Amino acid sequence: MSPTLSVLDLAPIRSSATSGPGEVAASFAESVVLAQTAEKLGFHRVWYAEHHNMPSIASSATSVLIGHVATQTSTIRLGAGGIMLPNHSPLVIAEQFGTLATLYGDRIDLGLGRAPGSDQLTFQALRRDPASAESFPHDVLELQAYFGTESRIKGVNAYPGYGTNVPLYILGSSLFGAQLAAQLGLPYSFASHFAPDALQQAVRVYRENFQPSEQLSEPYVIAGVGVVAADTNAEASELMEQVRRDRVQRFVGRNRDVPFTEDELDMVMASPAGEQILKMLKYTAVGTTEAVGEYLEQFAQTADADELITVQSPIEADARLNSLRITAEAAGLTAP
Question: Any bridge partners for residue 309, and if so which?
C-alpha cells in the first residue's frame, strides 16, 4: 500500500538579503498557491514550521500563516510541523489552535517539537528559559488537556480550545521524541529531511513501544523527504545543485553582511562544515516522474512510514510548483 503524501512548506523568502515586507508578502502569496495546488492534486496536508530570526523563512508566526492559508483553501488539512513548544506557554498555543479549529473544523493539525528552532540569542529574545525544554512532556500533556474538557490546572481552561480535541503529533529527530510519542500514544513525525541519521532507529523504537491512546489505536509514522522533481533529469540535477549551494550559503553565511562569492562558496561546500550541512539532504528524491516515484516508494519502506511529508526544494516558486505536480503524478495522486 502506498503511503499518504503531504507537504511541508517552509515559506521560503526568495531574497533573504533584504527580507523586507515585499519579499515576505511574496513568500506568503507563494505559500497560498502551493497549498491550493496541493489541494487540487490530492495531497493530504500542508504543514508549516516555526523558525525565528531567519531571514530566509517567513513562517515564524505559524498559526497566523495557517489561518491565512485556510481562508483560501477548502479541504486540505493544515497545521504546524511544528510549533516549538519550549518557546510558548501551552495555554497560549491552545488558544491559538483552538481558534483555528473553531474556524476551520477538523482540518487543523498541531505538530509539536522540543527544540527551540532558533539560536540562544533568539531564544533569550523570546523571553524563555533554556531549561523550559526539560518540561516538554509535561507541557504536551497540559496542552492536550486544554483541548479536552478536563484541564490539568484547576480553574484554567482555553477559550477557544476547550472541547476542540485538536490532534497532536510529536516531531523529532532523535530517540527522545520517538519514546515520548510512543508513551503518549500520539503520531510521530521524524525530521529525516534535515536530520537523517537516526531515522530507522527512532521509528523502530516508536513502533516497538507504542501505547494506544484515545487519539490513536495503532502507531503512525510520518517521515520528511526532500523532492527536486523536473521535466528532465538534467534540469532536476541543475535544480539540486542550486539547492545544495543555497543550503550552504544560508547556513554558513547567515550572519555575513555580504554573501559568499561563487568561488568562496565552492571552498565552503568542500569544507567539513559544508559537507556536514549537505549531509542533511541525504533523503532527497531527484529526477523525473519515474525516478521520483521509485525513490519515494523505496524511501517509505526504508523509513517504515505511513505518510511522507515532502519538502519541495527548488528555490524558485515556479520550479517548486512543477516539482509538486510531478511528485503527485509520480505517486499516482488523484484530486479529491
Answer: 6, 224
Cα 108 versus chain centre, distance: 14
| Domain extents in the chain | 1-166, 224-336
Higher pLDDT, 120 or 311: 311
Distance of alpha carbon 51 from alpha carbon 55, whole angstroms: 10
Q: 283 φ, ψ to 5°?
A: -95, 85
Distance of alpha carbon 111 from alpha carbon 59, whole angstroms: 14
Looking at 1.10.3090.10, 2.60.40.10, 3.30.70.80, 3.20.20.30, the CATH number of the domain 1-166 comes to 3.20.20.30
Q: How far apart are CA 267 and CA 217, in angstroms?
A: 51
The residue to which cell 534540469 is assigned: 235
- pLDDT, tens digit, 9 for 90 and up, residues 261-310: 899 899 999 999 999 999 999 999 999 999 999 999 999 999 999 999 99
CB within 8 Å of 62: residues ≥ 6 apart: 48, 49, 50, 80, 83
Backbone angles phi, psi at 74, to 5 degrees: -125, -40
What's the DSSP call for residue 200?
H
- When pLDDT is averaged across residues 77-98 and rounded to a whole number, the result is 96
The CA-to-CA distance between both ends of the chain, in Å, stands at: 19
186 pLDDT higher than 60: yes
**Encoded amino acid at 189, one letter:** S
Give CA–CA dist 251/244, Å, rounded: 11
E-strand stretches of the chain: 4-9, 45-48, 77-84, 108-113, 168-172, 188-190, 221-229, 284-287, 307-312
Handedness of CA 96, 101, 104, 106 (dihedral sign): positive
